[in-house]
């Protein structure tokens, strides 16, 4: 392929009340507010030198506008457009200046209908990595990955691996050998993009990397003291998949965010994907405890890149169910 995708780079969310969202993300989680106006808040982690990795946009309804990937060079955008057009998939250019702090971007719908965006240019800012006086809440460092529910995981896997150049670190299949979930990467960690079987396309969660496990626990204390105890949905715990220490939260609009630390390097070209059986009790949580029901069946809705209308969800190819050990 004639292009190079670097990493997942930002999430664009619609939220109902910016002040309520600011309190949660800035005061609670400790994200850096780069800029804001009456309709937008641009947020980033302490380690990040890009202008933002999370854009909150004021709207009447909470939905997901787009998931953005950074590419190596401007020319890559044109090559990616050719690929998507050749597959009969929708594309849309947003010229430089259309979006604050962004260069030219290409928006598309992938093979599952997920709205994606590719860009090479974003305004850079100072890292806050050694501004320890600004560390509070979860001390969020950088964006790590997104996880989407899709009707046919195998189709999504094939498109991302064969057409977009992603690699697979870990996967889950069923008793019959059907692909249930996959963890795919471009940067050398466990994943940038995960897919799980379910009605979709939907965003299950987006995730940020923290420095250590203590930061996860500190975040729980801070959120509880601020009255956000009910926002803690699952964890703290350790995944079997990825080995990461995790915490799942729901923001004031119901979007799910994972705080994540402790996965592993995937840069070696001879790294072989790790297989997990769907019914392995250590797969989702290494300690074996169950996830709440809503973790399996509640997701955020995507919107169309042209119309802005909510994308209709399709039922999964495989019958949706919990792992048998958890049923």
UniProtKB/TrEMBL annotation:
Gene Ontology MF term list: 3,4-dihydroxyphenylacetate 2,3-dioxygenase activity; ferrous iron binding
The protein's superkingdom reads: Bacteria
Q: How does it assemble?
A: Homotetramer.
NCBIfam families, from UniProt?
HpaD
As for family, the record states: Belongs to the extradiol ring-cleavage dioxygenase family.
Q: Which cofactor does it need?
A: Fe(2+)
Q: What class of enzyme is it?
A: oxidoreductase
Q: What is this protein's name?
A: 3,4-dihydroxyphenylacetate 2,3-dioxygenase
Instruction: Give the gene symbol.
Output: hpaD
Q: Which UniProt keywords apply?
A: Aromatic hydrocarbons catabolism, Dioxygenase, Iron, Metal-binding, Oxidoreductase, Repeat
* UniProt entry tagged with the keyword Repeat: yes
Domain VOC per the UniProt entry, residue ranges: 7-121, 142-262
Q: Which SUPFAM superfamilies match?
A: Glyoxalase/Bleomycin resistance protein/Dihydroxybiphenyl dioxygenase
Q: What is its EC number?
A: 1.13.11.15
């Amino acid at each position: 392929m004639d292009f190079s995708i670097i990493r997942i780079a930002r999430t664009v969310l619609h939220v109902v009340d910016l002040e309520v969202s600011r309190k949660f993300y800035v005061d609670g989680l400790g994200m850096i507010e780069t800029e804001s106006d009456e309709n937008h808040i641009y947020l980033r982690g302490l380690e990040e030198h890009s202008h933002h990795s999370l854009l909150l946009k004021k709207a009447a309804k909470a939905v997901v506008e787009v998931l953005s990937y950074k590419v190596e060079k401007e020319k890559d955008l044109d090559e990616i457009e050719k690929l998507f057009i050749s597959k009969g998939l929708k594309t849309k250019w947003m010229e430089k200046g259309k979006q604050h702090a962004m260069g030219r971007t290409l928006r598309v719908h992938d093979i599952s209908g997920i709205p994606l965006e590719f860009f090479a240019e974003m305004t850079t800012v100072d890292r806050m990595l050694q501004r320890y006086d600004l560390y509070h809440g979860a001390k969020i460092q950088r964006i790590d990955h997104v996880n989407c529910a899709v009707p046919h995981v195998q189709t999504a896997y094939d498109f991302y691996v064969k057409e977009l150049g992603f690699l697979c670190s870990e996967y889950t299949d069923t008793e019959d050998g059907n692909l249930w979930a996959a963890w795919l990467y471009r940067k050398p960690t466990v994943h940038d993009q995960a897919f799980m079987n379910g009605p979709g396309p939907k965003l299950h969660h987006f995730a940020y990397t923290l420095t250590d496990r203590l930061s996860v626990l500190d975040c729980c204390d801070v959120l509880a003291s601020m009255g956000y105890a009910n926002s803690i949905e699952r964890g703290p715990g350790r995944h079997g998949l990825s080995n990461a220490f995790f915490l799942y939260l729901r923001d004031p609009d119901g979007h799910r965010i994972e705080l994540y630390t402790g996965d592993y390097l995937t840069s070696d070209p001879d790294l072989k994907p790790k297989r997990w059986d769907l019914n392995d009790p250590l797969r989702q949580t290494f300690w074996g405890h169950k996830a709440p029901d809503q973790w399996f069946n509640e997701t955020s809705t995507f919107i169309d890149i042209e119309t802005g209308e909510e994308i209709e969800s399709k039922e999964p190819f495989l019958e949706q169910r919990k792992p048998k050990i958890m049923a």
